[in-house]
Amino acid sequence: MEDLTQEKYLAAGIPPQSQSRKPGLEKVMDPQPVFDLKSRKGSGKLAGKVAVVTGGDSGIGKAAAIGFAKEGAHVAIIYYDEHIDAEATKHLIEEQDVRCTLHAGDISDEVFCRKAIEDAIELHGQLDILVNNAAWANRQESILDISAEQLQKTFAINIFSMFYLTKAALPHLKVGSSIINTSSIDAYAGQTGQVDYSTTKGAIVAFTRAMAKELAPDGVRVNGIAPGPIWTPLVASSHSEKEVAEFGKSTPLGRPGQPVDLTGGFVLLASADGAYMTGQFLHINGGAYMSS
């Protein structure tokens, strides 16, 4: 994959587009998200570790999973039903001479979450890193338009799943293990049209900080990443064509982020480089705070 400079990012732009299918599919996005760079070389920071990544079939989760693989970690990807995207990601991970397993299902179901963790342990023998990343969104112009059904679904996928997966993973974690939760700039700045989504992302911040305190005596670190506007299938499936065409342009850097822009953050929090970090959030948002 060719490395992209800032100038190429800005020149490429994003044409108007939208996807009716939720969650969205990476394979039909134009341009394709950038999830890896040729210049990014691993140095064995996660050699022999095993990571479970939700939503690892595409977008931010895919970038994190490939970043872990480049550092020597084996990966279990939990995803919903985007089988083509998942198989493509598995192939890229296995090119790094590590193992990758796929676990399809609905993370809003606690029974599935327990089974997915159990299957990952059975296939990989251990668990060192849990990335709670998968999310769902459905834009509504007003809170008056958010039905009880949508509210419950957003919370079930975005935050309840983190309780389920963390509870299932805890017996297998040990000193030096890491949990990384994906929140959003929306937790801090808010977002019109996504009140329920923004609220779940705020809950993730509180969950992360509470779990960091709870697990610190056990030597397990819990941190998070709060991305700004990142070009992922979730964007294409939850925004209008006009919104997509303008996506990320208002940031000081003038472009949406790419999933690969978050890879270094995930590796930092998963590895010994972040050994003195817990209860923290990395804000990777192109300077969006300064323009909000």
TrEMBL record:
Keywords: Oxidoreductase. InterPro entries: NAD(P)-bd_dom_sf, Sc_DH/Rdtase_CS, SDR_fam. The keyword Oxidoreductase applies. Residues 1-28 are annotated as: Disordered. One of its GO terms (molecular function) is oxidoreductase activity, acting on CH-OH group of donors. It comes from the Bacteria. PROSITE patterns: ADH_SHORT (PS00061). GO terms for biological process: bile acid metabolic process. Gene3D superfamilies: NAD(P)-binding Rossmann-like Domain (3.40.50.720). Belongs to the short-chain dehydrogenases/reductases (SDR) family. This is SDR family oxidoreductase.
